[in-house]
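Handout, page 2. Input:
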Amino acid sequence: MADSTLTIALAGNPNSGKTTIFNAITGTRQKVGNWPGVTVEKKEGLVVKNGYQLKIVDLPGTYSLTPFSIEEIVARNYILDESPHVVIAIIDASNLERSLYLATQLRELDCKTVFALNMMDQAQTRGIKINAAKLSELLDVPVVFTVGNKGKGIDELLTAAIELALSERQVTQKRKVRYNLEIEKAIAALEQVLTDPGLPYDPRWTAIKLIEDDGIIKERLTAVAGDKAPALLEAAQQQRIYLMDRFSDEPEIVTTDERYGFISGIIKEVLTTSTLQRVDISRTIDMVLTNRFLGMPIFFFFIWAMFQVTFTVGAYPQAGIEAVFGLLAQGAGYLLPEGMIKDLVLEGIINGVGTVAVFLPNILILFFCIALFEDSGYMARAAFLMDKIMHLVGLHGKSFIPMLMGFGCNVPAIMATRTLESKTDRILTILITPFMSCSAKLPVYIVLAGGFFGARAGSVIFGIYLTGIVLSIVTGRIFRSTLFRGADAPFVMELPPYRMPMLKSLMIHMWDRSKLFLKRMGGVILIGSMVVWGLANFPRSGDLQAAYSQKTASIQEQFTDRMADADATRKSELALEQQAVLSDLERDHNAEQASRSLLGRLGHVLEPVFQPIGIDWRGGIALLSGFVAKEIVVSTLGVLYAVTDDPQANALQSALRAAGMTPLAALSMMVFVLLYMPCLATVAAIRRETGSVKWMFFSIGYTTSIAWLMAFAVYQGGRLIGVS
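Output:
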């Protein structure tokens, strides 16, 4: 039944545990997209409770509903325009004053509101006690205690929300913020001229927004009031002038102070702190993890450990995935008749996609570690530790959070720069973020590092990531001194308390990010592998194919003769030898065919560009294909190098070594992959977030130039000092 569906919106400050509660309520029943017209992420989930279907909407985290940022505008517009049945205000119980500011603004919207006092366990650890019954009485709202990361209070919270949604309770709140006499007079005066029934919002709330010079409300009022709009806006401006004269300050500053005064009075009534000195666990941990001497080495150890675990632990499940694709290849080879379709399926699809798919466990582990850093509160500490280093660039630690997110994917990392107040900071952070190696490059590193550096592979990959961080700082310093001159932006770092991550939440975060990898595997990587196979196999040389068939028949005939008089043991040995010889012949034939193909011709044209950095024409083509998506680099190498019946990572590594690639050349290629032009999706994000085609092309040009220069320095420098 349509009337049995209730919409519940979750609102709260960043780090209040809002997303944790959303995950606890919805689990994996989530739908992720973007809010209409903006790139802010939108999360929704459907659950059933007490016979009602609940549509849970996770609003962007904000500190207020003052429309300064996109997140604040999205959150407020949703409540105003979509009118959810209930808004649950997620309140950090250990930081009640700050959280109540947003909650107070929600009450002023005259929407049905439930307060969820979250993280009560941390508040109690600090000796904080909150009288929920008194708070509910004072503010006329239901209040529920919750501990989101342990799932406590979730059922009670949803029950309270359903009861409030179904109640006949008057929406208009009686116990509102009462401003000082002059402000109330101005509100009353404007309410008198805002009595037109056609106006969309509550007259008192609209009057307050006009006094605060809210641009969005003024625009909407102009649109709906028609000819009356100029008089309404003039009346509001007169009241603003009067209040500025009375207070010698902007009215919006005065109303903010009044709200905090109202909140302060509530806190004195409902909050008590134990006189017994409590041990602040977060502060104790920070004495070590953010120590001026120990903090940075510990941070780099955690990052090193993350990549070491990603490489070593991720290697174990690969055997199972390799076996699955091996069976697929055998099955397809058995079922399909000889011909072009069979070659496409084996060499293009199974081999191309399989070469990338085996790295799914590594991607999952990497995202799990990043989610662990975020949910535990350590991500903010990483930004705090990097604050001094970021000041060398003319940025602050907050810019490092989008950069650190770039380890997962550069697209959301670039979108996250919108939280930076300064436009200069945003553009500068966007330009240096692509040097943070995303998860799409990880398969390339694993193939090259695993194939050429053995047990040191994890440390080599860590070194590559560290190189990206260092170069982002160096280039940022250069840009700040040339393109973006100006004073550093002021910034206060917020350190949320440490929390014990909830496994369910970690798994959801890991899966949400990994879904993109799976979608790309079934989309862009599949199509890219097929296109690469086609370009690598056409035009087909009749003479080459005839020579290959003749050599194959000759080898089979030779081994048939040798097996004629051999015993059973010798026949088995000869059969294995024949298989190896035929495999080598097939690989040489495929390489020659690829060299004569359209792809080979293009590769030979580009070869002079890549040869000085130790990369042959096949590697050059693979790097060029990486502009679409970096995972395609591996699938392209798989199509050009790997044998048709073995889509395993070690087969590609063996093929690279057989083709003459050295550890130095592999390291050079890893450096180039780290630094060269971002993928197509990232380039589009740069264009969208900077609003400039100029910065987009600048990013492509300078990253690729630096990539070539650094790879040249590694390869030629290594050869100069005698490193192979």
